[in-house]
């Protein structure tokens, strides 16, 4: 393949990393093009040739752009504590978390989970049971999102400190909580009805 053929897709992926999905397969194996794509849009890693999902340099570049890119890395690299810590740091919104894609050992790692819930309180949902029962972790999560209390261990949901520290719910969060409650009530009602049928 000529340098000219390689250079043509490079500007496209530098402007929009997701354009990596539209280029010919053989170009998805070109490190320069893949690095340009993930530097622009970390989650473009999902369109790269499989060999790059195991390439620490490429995955690191993708994670620096978007922590969620780690979900597309190989199992081995998803299990890297170093990459996991940085991935949870590079998640920038409360719904943008990567904890759910990490192996169980990292979802039970105090530092990884604390870093994650500080950025996205709702990521508490994917923490280990041990850490969902850890008051310090739960406090950090509810300070970031009052809705995170839903994922705390039962004995912490009504803990005075947790309730006091929980960030007040926004209007949107209150609607979400009402929706969750309706779903829960609907499931409970169905379970009771099914129990009556037996």
Task: Give an overview in words.
The relative contact order is 0.07. The N and C termini lie far apart (69 Å). The N terminus is likely disordered. The chain has two domains: 78 residues, no CATH class; 92 residues, no CATH class. Helices cover 58% and strands 0% of the residues. It is mainly α. It has 14 helices and no strands. The longest helix has 27 residues. It is elongated, with a radius of gyration of 21 Å.
Keyphrases for this structure?
single chain; about 200 residues; 14 helices; mainly alpha
Structural class: mainly alpha
Biggest sheet layout:
none
Q: Quick check: average pLDDT?
A: 85
Please report which band the strand proportion falls in: under 5%, 5-15%, 15-25%, 25-35%, 35-45% or over 45%: under 5%
Tell me the number of structural domains.
2
- As a percent range, the share of helical residues equals 55-70%
Distance separating the two termini? 69 Å
Q: What is the tally of beta strands? A: 0
The H-and-E topology, N to C, reads as HHHHHHHHHHHHHH
Radius of gyration: 21 Å
Q: Figure out the total of helices.
A: 14
pLDDT < 50 runs, ≥5 residues: 1-7
Overall 3D form:
elongated
């Amino acid at each position: 393949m000529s340098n000219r053929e390689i250079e043509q897709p490079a500007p496209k992926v530098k402007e929009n990393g997701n354009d990596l999905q539209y280029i010919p397969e053989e170009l998805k194996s070109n490190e320069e093009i893949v690095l340009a794509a993930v530097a622009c849009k970390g989650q473009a890693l999902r369109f790269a040739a499989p060999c790059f999902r195991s390439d620490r340099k490429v995955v690191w570049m993708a994670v620096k752009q978007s922590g969620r890119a780690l979900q597309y890395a190989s199992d081995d690299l998803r299990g890297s504590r170093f990459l996991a810590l940085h991935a949870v740091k590079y998640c920038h919104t409360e719904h943008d978390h990567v904890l759910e894609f990490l192996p169980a050992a990292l979802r039970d790692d105090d530092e990884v989970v604390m870093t994650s819930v500080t950025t996205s309180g709702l990521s508490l949902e994917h923490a280990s049971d041990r850490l969902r029962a850890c008051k310090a972790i739960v406090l950090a999560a509810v300070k970031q999102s009052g809705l995170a209390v839903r994922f705390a261990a039962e004995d912490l949901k009504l803990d005075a400190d947790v309730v006091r520290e929980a960030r007040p719910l926004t209007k949107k969060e209150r609607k979400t909580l009402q929706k969750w409650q309706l779903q829960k009530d609907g499931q409970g009602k169905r379970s009771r009805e099914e129990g009556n049928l037996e």
